[in-house]
Amino acid sequence: MHHYASATIEMFDAEHGGRKTPTTAVGCEYRPHLRRSVDCEMLGVCFVDGPETIVPGEQVVVTLLLMYDGIDYSSLIRDATFQIVEGPHVVGKAVIKDRWSSE
Q1: CB–CB of 56/19 below 8 Å?
Q2: What residues does each domain of the chain span?
Q3: For residue range 10-20, what is the model confidence (pLDDT) as tens digits?
Q4: Other C-beta atoms within 10 Å of 10: how many?
Q5: CATH hierarchy code of domain 2-102
Q6: How many other CB atoms are found less than 10 A from the CB of residue 14?
Q7: In this structure, are residues 36 and 75 in contact, taking their beta carbons and an 8 Å threshold?
Q8: Rounded (to 5) percent helix, strand, coil in the chain
Q9: DSSP 15
Q10: What SS3 state is found at 16?
Q11: Is the pTM of this model over 0.90?
């Protein structure tokens, strides 16, 4: 079984500590972590659907694959806010819209 969430995201531009280049939301090529600011819990996700190009500064809706079995993703609830993290860098923000599972 696969677990997913949809989120409205905004990638920060380089001026605000974010990415210098666009990323993509298709094909599971982009694999950041989501981090809650309250407890700094890191959740590995993969962007599997959304715009082919996500330009820093834009707000877009993406589908996230919740990648790891055994990790507690229960904090990914509607309207929960997360930082998008690449290594030590906060490169964007995400607001969860929905969550579901499929075979």
Answers
A1: yes
A2: 2-102
A3: 999 999 989 88
A4: 18
A5: 2.40.30.10
A6: 11
A7: yes
A8: 5, 50, 45
A9: G
A10: helix
A11: yes
